[in-house]
Amino acid sequence: MASRKDPVRSTMADLSDRYRLYQLAVQNPRTEIDFVDRTFRQLRGRSARMLREDFCGTAAVCCEWVGRRKRNQARGVDLDADVLAWGRRHNLAVLDAAAQARVALIDGDVREVETPAPDIVLAMNCSYWLLRDRCHLLRYFARVRDALAVGGIFFLDAFGGYDTFRLLSEERRVKDPQSGGFTYIWEQALYEPVTGRLVCHIHFRFDDGSEWPRAFSYDWRLWTLPEIRELLAEAGFSRVMVYWQGWDADGKPDGVFVPVESGEPDAGWIAYLTAEK
Predict the structure, then answer these.
(1) What is this structure's pTM?
(2) Among 131, 143, 153, 252, which residue's CB has the most CB atoms within a 10 Å radius?
(3) Does residue 3 lie within any of the structural domains?
(4) Which domain holds residue 173?
(5) Could you tell me if 203 and 254 lie in one domain?
(6) Same domain for 248 and 155
(7) Which residues does 79 contact at the CB level (< 8 Å), separation at least 6?
């Protein structure tokens, strides 16, 4: 990778914005909110209004939420002041003034923050896996339950499969309206079976041959679905459901998540969970 201090020649990596690349490669706020909004109505028979996005990063999901209905409000919580500032400049700034007023971004710890009681709390992209000790994750889940409004629902996601327990690197081409595209690389760099520690990196490679190695790194615990469900129940949630993704005619994930009591032992899978107060 060319030096970012090179005054003579700037590469695509030098000129790139890692948060923008992450949003293009990893996030799909529209699809995520489609699922959350629809599932809440199915479970509660009404639409939610107040959403809190924990570990919100750039708050792209908060912005998508307030765009759905004029009465929707969102709170985003994250410990990283830099990424919150980026979200204000690049995501909140494109909303009209009325929508911006319905979003509040909070620099704080999701285990300590106080917010108006939300109908929905989200913890997506396996962000809560940063809490690697059982006691810390249980405390977080209990805090979420206490924070939710009556009838509120906690939405999470998880991934797994037998490939999750091995070291690997996967590449995927991502379209980019500015540059034409780039390569997203997901690396599972370390898995420790005694503790469940999982270290992963996101790298980006560009068409001029430059790269941004370890643009993002995660030092997680690989939490399994039985562990997550048991901790949610212990935290006091009344019902916990798992939503499994189906397959299309070509054998590829179809993006449709349905409640299940059992799943398939695939190499890799992604699931949503709901926990009801």
Answers:
(1) 0.93
(2) 153
(3) no
(4) 12-16+164-219
(5) no
(6) yes
(7) 107, 108, 109
